[in-house]
Amino acid sequence: MDRNSRPVWYAAYGSNCSRTRLLAYLTGSRAPASTVVETGATDTTPPSESAACELPYRVRFAGESRKWGGGFARLGHEKTSPPSLGRRYLITWSQFDDLVAQESRRPSLPLPIADLEPGVHHLVGEGGYDNLLALNPVNGVPVVTFTAPTPPENLQPAAPSPAYLGTIVRGLAEVHSLSAAEIAERLLLSPGIAPVWGLDAITALLTPGTHQ
Predict the structure, then answer these.
(1) DSSP letter string, 59-120
(2) Of the four listed, 65, 89, 153, 190, which is most buried by Cβ atoms within 10 Å?
(3) What is the pTM of this model?
(4) Separation of alpha carbons 72 and 88, rounded Å
């Protein structure tokens, strides 16, 4: 089985929790509220499945996003409890290769998905998201995410923009059987969210027309 047909669960924790935003990376389009048209993947097929997931690491917001403004999400390197909310998508290995390449702003290359051990970081380059991290497989299918090579725990937190955080919140709400307040409470555990964002402000992002 080649990379164009081998399945992998991609575990998203940032704006890619929104299916619409992820599809921009696959199809080479611009996500709503983003300022960048993505390169796109060689295989533009939508994910065959998606599901709610949790990642046993803290999502942390820092830096300044060129696409959204404000801080952007990275997954911490140290395990934490409670876990962070996420969303997993069933895509192909080649699509995952192309996704990481776009996030890290470099040419695509085959990634060592088969060699990844759950909980062990694997650097594949110097790009902003070139640190692969496997979670426990699901029914024999690898579950993989990616984060920054430098531990985000060492970075100064920065609040995300309304457009960026709203994309994350709405994506999580699509798959998690949680109330808006429960999703907001989990996000408030992420450095960079408070004090700029509070419970009411986050839940308001789920209201159509609010903070678009």
Answers:
(1) EEEES--TTTSB-EEEEEEEEEEEEEEEEEEEEEHHHHHHHHHHHHTS------GGGPPBT-
(2) 89
(3) 0.95
(4) 19
What single-letter DSSP state applies at residue 2? Answer: -
**Residue 171, Ramachandran bin (φ over 0: left; ψ between -120 and 50: alpha; else beta):** alpha
Question: Which pLDDT band holds residue 209 (cuts at 50, 70, 90)?
Answer: low
CA distances in angstroms from 125 to 70, 110, 122, listed in the order given: 25, 12, 9
CA neighbor of 96 nearest in space, from 168, 145, 36: 145
Distance set, CA 130 to CA 6, 43, 74, 197 (Å):
21, 21, 11, 29
Closest CA to 111 of 130, 97, 101: 97
Mean pLDDT of the chain: 95
Q: What is the pLDDT of residues 149-176, one digit of tens each?
A: 999 999 999 999 999 999 999 999 999 9
pLDDT, tens digit, for every residue of 11-66? 999 999 999 999 999 999 998 878 889 999 999 999 999 999 999 999 999 999 98
Q: Reduce the DSSP state of residue 3 to 3 states and report it.
A: coil
Q: Where are the domains of the chain?
A: 7-204
User: Contact, 199 vs 68, CB < 8 A?
Assistant: no
Q: Which CATH class is domain 7-204?
A: alpha beta
**Structure token digits, residue 47:** 């994910």
